[in-house]
Write a structure and sequence with these properties.
alpha/beta, 9 strands, 34% strand, elongated
């Protein structure tokens, strides 16, 4: 009788252990999927410009620390930011913006050659940038706030090397307040910024002051 009670106790203990182990290992939640986004827009046209017989290098744009991550930032109020859950930029916005600026200047055809910051070619002209804000604002707009400096390195005086420095602020409403909506709206803002920058560089090469 005593042996039978011991056997029943072992069986019950075994069943309890089996249930616990099943709960711990048999119902593990599947890992969540992180959606990744990038900009996507048609490169601005070259217009009627004739290419200058010079080279240009697009340096990697610097970026404000709070936007220096793949997180898709949303300003929700003073001192406060949030991000879209399970959604992020494919790369850091600084690299993404730099890449598109290089692409658009190259396709504009206003220079004989264009180079990125990791090339070893020596260019007369440099494009430098600082991204102050890149994300969704509290009033539901996609904001690209970028300061650009266009330099002529053939000049000796560092101050005189600055051909122009300009703040570009472009915003577009985010339609459905989603990560994909933000990517689409920022793409539109970037297209406007890129077109304005290319126009200003073209004017500067003609000796005119950008508006």
């Amino acid at each position: 009788m005593k042996t039978r009670k011991i056997n029943i106790g072992l069986i019950v203990l075994t069943l309890i252990c089996a249930v616990v182990l099943t709960g711990c290992f048999g119902r593990t939640k599947p890992p969540y999927v992180m959606d990744q986004y990038t900009l996507d827009y048609v490169s601005p046209g070259a217009g009627e410009r004739r290419p200058v017989d010079e080279l240009v290098t697009v340096e990697r744009f610097a970026i404000s620390p709070q936007f220096s991550s793949p997180s898709m930032m949303i300003r929700t109020g003073q001192y406060r930011f949030e991000t879209y859950d399970y959604s992020r930029w494919h790369v850091n916005p600084a690299d993404m913006v730099t890449g598109f600026v290089l692409r658009d200047i190259t396709r504009s055809g206003i220079f004989k050659g264009t180079y990125s910051y990791y090339d070893t070619e020596l260019s007369r002209y440099l494009v430098e940038g600082y991204i102050e804000e890149f994300g969704e604002t509290a009033d539901g707009k996609a904001l690209a706030n970028i300061r650009v400096t266009f330099l002529d390195t053939s000049r000796q005086n560092p101050v005189e090397q600055i051909v122009f420095q300009k703040q570009y602020v472009h915003s577009t409403p985010v339609g459905d307040h989603s990560a994909s909506g933000l990517a689409a709206a920022l793409s539109a803002a970037m297209q406007e910024f890129s077109a304005a920058l290319i126009t200003d560089i073209g004017m500067a090469l003609q000796g005119k002051t950008p508006k």
